[in-house]
């Protein structure tokens, strides 16, 4: 009597299942949800209430800050969230256990990417609603929506890949937040998130230009601000072509770093 074997699930089915697991695990962790989703909103509410001055051409600081806080939210959903969660899963043995299962290893990364995408969309939608309802920040119009989408997509991809790579810097899950959060905060301060980028010292502007957050914020400013304010940028224009190029280069560099540095278990484990 022969025993019928159930066919193995398709790779696409495994990817969908893993994506569902990642989404459920994220939204069940209140601390992660509050920090990743609520923190950018709190920043927008606080800065919008306190900094009410006009930066020129009838543009309020809140309208300028909208681009920066969205960029910071994408950074948090990608780099910070990804680096901390992977470092924690590596430390508690989750990655090691997953690597020993028949599950394609690609499914783990697909699940993480879907999680980042869902969280990023949620952050962007919430920030746009809050900015529009409470501070009358005008929404993008016409072709600006296309710019908004590709800048956010490229920026999110670069931050996600860097988050996977940076997860290997943490010695263990407990030190992950202390390792990653200062990096994110420094990038936010030098990239024109919390104040006008033109007010950042020139040498720090040069440092910021090596990282994707500066270019993501600059690309998003082109969406929310009038073209007249492009003159305040270092090159006197939005440089959207360079924004796309730098973010694409960081995507490639991030992918290479992931391949070279990613580990399924902590150092010293066998």
Q: Would you spell out the secondary-structure blueprint of this structure?
A:
Blueprint: H1 11-28, H2 30-50, E1 54-56, E2 59-60, H3 61-91, H4 94-99, H5 105-135, H6 144-166, H7 173-190, H8 202-208, H9 212-224, H10 240-261
Antiparallel strand pairs: 1-2
Helix pairs in contact: 1-5, 2-3, 2-5, 3-5, 3-6, 3-7, 3-9, 6-9, 6-10, 9-10
Percent strand equals under 5%
SS summary, helix count: 10
- Rounded to the nearest angstrom, the radius of gyration is 20 Å
Fraction in helix: over 70%
Question: What does this protein look like?
Answer:
By secondary structure, the protein is mainly α. The chain has ten helices and two strands; from the N terminus they run H-H-E-E-H-H-H-H-H-H-H-H. It has helices at 11-28, 30-50, 61-91, 94-99, 105-135, 144-166, 173-190, 202-208, 212-224, 240-261, and strands at 54-56, 59-60. The chain has a two-stranded antiparallel sheet. Helix 9 packs antiparallel against helix 10. It is elongated, with a radius of gyration of 20 Å.
């Amino acid at each position: 009597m022969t025993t019928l074997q159930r066919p193995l699930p398709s790779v696409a089915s495994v990817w969908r299942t893993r994506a569902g697991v990642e989404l459920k695990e994220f939204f069940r962790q209140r601390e992660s949800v509050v920090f990743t989703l609520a923190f950018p909103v709190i920043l927008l509410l606080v800065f919008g209430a306190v900094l009410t001055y006009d930066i020129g051409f009838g543009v309020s600081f809140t309208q300028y800050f909208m681009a920066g806080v969205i960029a910071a939210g994408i950074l948090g959903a990608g780099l910070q969230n990804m680096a901390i969660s992977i470092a924690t899963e590596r430390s508690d043995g989750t990655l090691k256990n997953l690597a020993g299962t028949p599950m394609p290893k690609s499914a783990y990364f697909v699940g993480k990417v879907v999680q980042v995408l869902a969280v990023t969309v949620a952050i962007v939608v919430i920030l746009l609603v809050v900015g529009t309802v409470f501070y009358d920040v005008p929404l993008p119009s016409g072709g600006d929506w296309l710019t908004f989408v590709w800048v956010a997509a490229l920026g999110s991809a670069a931050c996600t890949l860097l988050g996977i790579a940076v997860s290997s810097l943490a010695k263990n899950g407990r030190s992950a937040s202390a390792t990653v959060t200062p990096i994110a905060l420094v990038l936010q301060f030098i990239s024109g998130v919390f104040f006008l980028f033109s007010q950042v010292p020139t040498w720090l502007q040069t440092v910021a230009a090596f990282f994707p957050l500066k270019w993501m914020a600059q690309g998003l400013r082109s969406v929310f601000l009038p073209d007249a304010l492009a003159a305040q940028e270092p090159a006197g224009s939005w440089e959207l072509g360079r924004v796309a190029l730098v973010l694409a280069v960081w995507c490639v560099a991030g992918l290479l770093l992931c391949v070279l540095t990613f580990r399924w278990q902590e150092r010293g484990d066998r």
